Amino acid sequence: KNILIVPGDGIGQEVTEVGKNVLVKIAEKFGHEFIYDEALMGHVAIEATGNPLPDETLEKMRNSDAILFGAVGHPKYDNDPTAKVRPEQGLLKMRKELGLYANLRPIKLFDELLGASSIKPEILKGSDILFFRELTGDIYFGEKGRKNDNNTAYDIAEYSRYEVERIGRKAFEAARTRGKRLMSVDKANVLETSRLWREVIQALAPEYPDIEVEHQFVDSAAMLLIKDPRRFDVVVTANLFGDILTDEASQIAGSMGMLASASVGDSTGVYEPIHGSAHDITGKGIANPLASVLSAALLLDISFGLKEESDAIIAAVDKLLKDGFRTKDIADASTPAHLLLNTQSAG
Amino acid sequence: KNILIVPGDGIGQEVTEVGKNVLVKIAEKFGHEFIYDEALMGHVAIEATGNPLPDETLEKMRNSDAILFGAVGHPKYDNDPTAKVRPEQGLLKMRKELGLYANLRPIKLFDELLGASSIKPEILKGSDILFFRELTGDIYFGEKGRKNDNNTAYDIAEYSRYEVERIGRKAFEAARTRGKRLMSVDKANVLETSRLWREVIQALAPEYPDIEVEHQFVDSAAMLLIKDPRRFDVVVTANLFGDILTDEASQIAGSMGMLASASVGDSTGVYEPIHGSAHDITGKGIANPLASVLSAALLLDISFGLKEESDAIIAAVDKLLKDGFRTKDIADASTPAHLLLNTQSAG
Lengths: 347, 347
Ligand SMILES: CC(C)[C@H](C(=O)O)[C@@H](O)C(=O)O
Ligand SMILES: CC(C)[C@H](C(=O)O)[C@@H](O)C(=O)O
Known about the structure:
The structure is a homodimer.
Chain A: E1 2-8, H1 11-30, E2 35-38, H2 43-49, H3 55-62, E3 66-71, H4 75-78, H5 87-97, E4 102-108, H6 121-124, E5 128-134, E6 144-147, E7 152-160, H7 161-176, E8 181-186, H8 192-204, E9 212-217, H9 218-227, E10 234-237, H10 239-249, E11 260-264, E12 269-273, H11 290-302, H12 307-322, H13 343-346
One 3-isopropylmalic acid sits between chains B (73, 88, 91, 243) and A (189-190, 219).
């Protein structure tokens, strides 16, 4: 099995190294042979080649069985909205070129971190959500540009029935293996793309009579996530709404530093933390590497079908937390100094 | 002064009556003469005239000095994404026709309700946010439709410099009267409309050197709202992002039932609860009318410049809460039955 390591920018470098080490240990322990290669993407790729997703990287990605990915981004582009070449272009191009239309974001709270969230423990306890975010359509990939002498900007959101149906089916099927409830989130009272979205999900529902389907408007869903997170089981939604809701939902798990995601579709899969490159903490050794470690667990489970190996990683993370170890983002006033980890020792 | 009362649908009817009664009492007490008229909008208007915003209603709106509005919507349209006439069309048309480009949503926590939120009191305490949501542009009002034999849907998001600048200025000016911090929320790493948005806000900043400006991506802002609500003072954002973030932020105040909004622009202003028509609780007498009461307070302050009268309403709400009275949405296990109010008695 070929695994491509793409650390990307900022803390992506630090945490992906830890995630990779965990894969190496698991291979040793369970007697697997994984072959690793590495490639550049994002700001570091722009610096080296002028291109945020060099052809060589894309080629290696296509030839991989799975990709462990870090993060891309750099503050210098954020403050310059007119920059023509941007790290995120590489990310979006990767998603499109590899056909990664389904982004799975499990939001699961480790019991030990019940106190780490801003949300009250009695509201949170038992929350367990699996988001299916559509990843290759919507306003991310439609035509965009300027007109009227550069004085008007536009972005086109677009969805086809086919695109909604394939992510919808994945979500319905996942609901079968879990709590049998599916929430579809849209803005069908305003958007035509959302009305198509709702039509397609409604048309699929009779094929999954064992699944209870609920439709929510995105504004209401954003509110309910905080008010009543246990109401959510599997959620399926469009690219932009999924981006917003999953970041919000990270607060259910206490920290973005705990959350992994899987992007799958036609061939290889990409596994990555949901956090970004976080240049403000880069190089300080304080980044929480567990999201990358849990990404490695998702990789083994989803792309390689190695459930036991995946569970072993999750159990190790659980034990680490039970033993009281914490990185800064999930520590609190009661964490003793000798249990405060830096990125490498946590790995 | 002419005040038009537009209760709309569902609990809009119940709560707006209470809001109006408060205006009547205030006029009596402070010796003002307000002239009231009433008009239909939403589902009730469709039933009566076939049109969610009848010409007669629009005409009355144009001739008013301010409008106290309830809510529009009906579940029957939500489950039928193909319905051609929808209550929300009336709402959107009203915003566009009256030029209500600035939607102000103050998120202020009454001390007495510190415990009513799902968020921990120590995180919430002292939160005080004022959102400026752009209300007549973005993906709400661009062209939308179907193509490819009805198999593809699209929505166009659009912003002009002029549109961003006028809402931006309102937000900068409000920041001056408050904590002097402005957060502009966009998705400039993906959307062209957001890149224009950021350019315009950046260009305005030097004119307001006393205001500290921060740019956040919408996904990050959705996360920070829960993690650290005190980080927010004035927020300015586009129509769709504002819709999502303000509903989410309602959880800071404990309940949507406590939050009022003002939509202002070229002429008359519209004052309304941020909650919807809530047909699930309509007619039960349990709706919290305080959002409408606080909308009346905003109306007096913003459209009529009657600050003392407005403050008197807010003080009365505060006293009601201090005396322990609660509607169901803000009650908890410790609320004694005799302090549990229904909609009318709360008013
Ligand atoms: C970096 C950005 C383009 C990206 C997105 O919006 O998809 C990120 O927020 C994510 O969620 O992976
Ligand atoms: C009803 C709906 C069209 C509306 C909106 O999205 O603007 C509502 O959610 C609001 O926030 O006023």
